[in-house]
Amino acid sequence: MTTLPEPFASIPRHQLLYPHPSPIHPLPKLTSSLPSKPTTTTTTIWAKREDQSSPLACCGNKFRKLEYLIPDILSHRSPTTSSPVTTLVTEGGIQSNHTAQVAAVAAYLGLESLVLLHRNTAAFSSASDQTNYLKTGNVQICTLLGSTIHYLEPNSQKRTSTNEDTTDHIEPHLSSLREAGKTPYFIPSGASLHPLGGLGYARCAFEIADQETHHLSHTQSKIFDHIFVACGSGSTLAGLIAGFKLLQQESKHPSSSPRKITGILISPTKPLSYHQTRILTLAREAGSKIGLRNPAQDITPEDVVLDAGYAGSAYAVLDGSTRGVVERLARGDGILLDPVYTGKVMEGVMGWVGEEGLREEGDGDGGGGGEKNVLFIHTGGQAAWGAYVQ
Ligand SMILES: *Cc1c(COP(=O)(O)O)cnc(C)c1O
């Protein structure tokens, strides 16, 4: 049981996840295959399986965020007709996992869904088979889940990725739904700009802490010194940062020690400082909701560690190096990563832990000896593979 402090515990949440925490397990083959450094520290790489956190279709990190949006969706009324929500509307790149998870939630709640997919992406223009890219993977699954799919044409807006922050291009779609007598509810890309979007992963920090103290070791608690996670639209990373800060504030908690959390940027369309400021804002917003005493002081720019070095050629483009890492995990540990996010994150983990050494010598365990545990967050996304046939 994940226990949260107040006021966090009282924020309404509609459960989509299993009642038990998503599993955490070691990756033994990967761990032993990484070059060991001439120190006495042993590093173990673990995976937290957010791709196995919910029974709903295409399970991944968006369900955790959507749990906190559902109470708002269910209580929302149209300002003009007072009717309840009929239709969830969301957007993403063509193979967006987020849209499929929103479609699954719509089906589960008995609502309709409209999925808006951006065609003007590097991933689509570089796809080896564009017709296939438009029809398979998450697109096919959205259709199975009952969504209506509209493509946003290349000239309808100037966008290069799915994480730009304007919604002007959405308005016409919301208006036509309203004209048809529907009440739409818009969920921004990745749910990150939704005011409640960061809460799910703040809660996940408490779940991880609970697993550290109660589940993973019978003899002693196991603390994850360094956590790696994808940073796309950003509220997964931002929520984790806020949640672990709140844990630190709860100094009585056995897992209250400070963590290193590194976000592997997946879509660095702007300078690093832009992404850093964005994550900082999202983390502080989540922090103020969950009860950080002084979010602006408690969460500092130094808490937002982003690495743009593993993004590859463009968002959702699968480079040879990422494919290599995916194959290494698949053939070594029998674990399937995804082509857009977790493959790149794992490249980052291998870079930081292996070849480059954990760039934090001397931290945490006092520099010499001991055990380090690295946690890789598997955020899902495997349903996109069909669109990446060679
Ligand atoms: C959306 C997504 C992410 C990124 O999460 P953000 O909160 O948008 O940064 C990572 N992995 C997968 C598989 C995703 O679908």
Describe the protein's architecture and organization.
By secondary structure, this protein is an alpha/beta fold. It is 36% helix and 15% strand. The protein has a six-stranded mixed sheet with strand order 1-2-10-7-8-9, with helices on both faces. A four-stranded parallel sheet has the order 5-4-3-6. Helix 8 (199-215) packs across helix 9. 49% of the residues are buried. Residues 157-163 and 362-368 have low confidence and may be disordered. The structure holds pyridoxal-5'-phosphate. Pyridoxal-5'-phosphate (PLP) binds next to helix 3, strand 7 and helix 9.
Approximately how much helix is present in the residues? 25-40%
Order of helices and strands: EHEHEHEHHHEHEHEHEHHEHHE
Number of extended strands: 10
For the biggest sheet, the summary is: 6 strands, mixed
Shape: globular
Mean pLDDT: 91
The proportion of strand residues reads 5-15%
Low-confidence stretches: 157-163, 362-368
How many helices in DSSP terms? 13
Cα end-to-end separation: 43 Å
With strands numbered from the N-terminus, the spatial order across the biggest sheet is 1-2-10-7-8-9
Rg, Cα atoms, Å: 20 Å
List each distinct ligand once: pyridoxal-5'-phosphate
Question: What is the SS-derived class?
Answer: alpha/beta
